[in-house]
């Protein structure tokens, strides 16, 4: 069993939490991502307001059905006690092959058990040419959307809530 990264955060644990969040979101596994949030977690994502893991999971399934080959980079912006702020950018393409870079900020609040209970996200999209992509990571387990199998997720979101398999955020720009 992994140790859960719990508040209050230090610089080291905040960096670990951000890197772990980046890693689990890059899995594009809605079940795995949703398990990193408290059962009653609330989200504001653009103009959508979500509550609970089931709504989060449904939202992520819709998101990744249209945001193909999604690749994300998160950067720690600030932290205190049980809160973390990040800036991020991610790249994806639609079904027609048009690439986009989405920029934004997120404010996170965690419960005493280290699960995220509130996420506020502001996001803007910009169309880009495929040659302008800059969010690249070499992940052994990365599988393009075109090669993915469908089916229920089996992995727990330990990458998001564990300090065991994570390292501080790296600049990939």
- Beta percentage is 35-45%
N to C succession of SSEs: HHEEHEEEEH
In order across it, which strands form the biggest sheet? 2-1-6-5-4-3
Question: What is the number of strand segments?
Answer: 6
Silhouette: globular
The biggest sheet amounts to:
6 strands, mixed
The helix content, as a percent range, equals 10-25%
Q: End-to-end span in angstroms?
A: 33 Å
Structural class: alpha+beta
Mean pLDDT across all residues, rounded?
84
Q: Give the low-confidence spans.
A: 139-173
Report the total helices. Answer: 4
Q: Radius of gyration over alpha carbons? A: 15 Å
Description:
The structure is a single chain. This protein has 173 residues and is α+β, with helices and mostly antiparallel strands. Helices cover 23% and strands 36% of the residues. The chain has helices spanning 11-26, 30-34, 52-66, 158-161, and strands spanning 37-45, 48-51, 68-80, 83-93, 99-110, 116-128. The protein has a 6-stranded mixed beta sheet. Strand 4 and strand 5 form a beta hairpin. The N and C termini lie far apart (33 Å). The model is unreliable at 139-173 (pLDDT under 50).
